[in-house]
């Protein structure tokens, strides 16, 4: 069941995080990818690859360290998707 307050991008990001995780997780927007969800650097790269495929965007590797929480990842993907839509 879907929370009507969540955007498609937010749901997609959370879905990707759950798929990449090697253990059951329930990410929230405040969850830190490393501290709270236990992602290592390889999993972070897997998340980036899956997000790029799912949303048809290219996430610059320079921006990756800045996105530590789920909310920051959602914001980054949203900005890329919206930027693509205006080009």
Give me some keywords for this one.
87 residues, mainly alpha, 3 helices, 0% strand, disordered N terminus
Task: Write a brief structural summary.
By secondary structure, the protein is mainly alpha-helical. The protein has helices at residues 8-20, 41-55, 70-86.
Q: What is the average of the pLDDT values?
A: 89
Question: Class by helix and strand content?
Answer: mainly alpha
Fraction of residues in H or I helices: 40-55%
Low-confidence sequence ranges: 1-5
Number of helices: 3
Tell me about the largest β-sheet: none
Relative strand content: under 5%
Q: Which H/E pattern describes the elements?
A: HHH
Counting DSSP E segments of at least 2 residues, the number of strands comes to: 0
Form type? globular
Distance between the termini: 34 Å
> What Rg do the Cα atoms give?
12 Å
Could you please describe the fold and organization of this structure?
The protein is an all-alpha fold and 87 residues long. The chain contains three helices and no strands. It has helices spanning 8-20, 41-55, 70-86. Helix 1 crosses helix 2 (41-55). The relative contact order is 0.18. Mean pLDDT is 89; it is low at 1-5.
Give the helix/strand layout.
Elements: H1 8-20, H2 41-55, H3 70-86
Helix pairs in contact: 1-2, 1-3
